[in-house]
Amino acid sequence: MIKKLRMKLIIASMMSLLAVLLIIEGIAGALNYNRIVAETDQTLEILEENNGKFPDVPPPEKPSEKKKEGRMSSELRYCLTVKGKCSQQIQERLPELILLMR
What is the Cα–Cα distance from 83 to 88, expressed in whole angstroms? Predict the structure, then answer.
């Protein structure tokens, strides 16, 4: 009797887990489908406005070299925060690297 009840409980819990997973997957699939349809409609509108061709879009700007000069490498940051854990190369170049940061 206990084995039958145990088996019924296991089957019921597995069925409820399956139902929950199916509901979650159904919601995720529906949301994904709606997003894809919206993106497709937007692309088709762009093509319709431009007689079947994509408009020319300028390439994105590359970061300037000035911005890169002020950055500190992760090794140097680590070296400055955790003293004595730097590699020998970084310790030798530390004054030079600090001057580059200014």
Answer: 12
Please state the pTM of the whole predicted model: 0.49
Per residue in 60-73, pLDDT (tens digit) is: 777 655 555 556 66
Dist CA 11 CA 83 (whole Å):
60
Share of the chain above pLDDT 90, in %: 42
Task: Report the alpha-carbon distance of residue 77 to residue 94 in Å, rounded.
Answer: 11
CA distances from 49 to 23, 56, 73, 95, 102 (A): 39, 13, 47, 58, 50
Cβ-based burial of 4 (10 A; exposed 0-12, middle 13-18, buried ≥19) = exposed
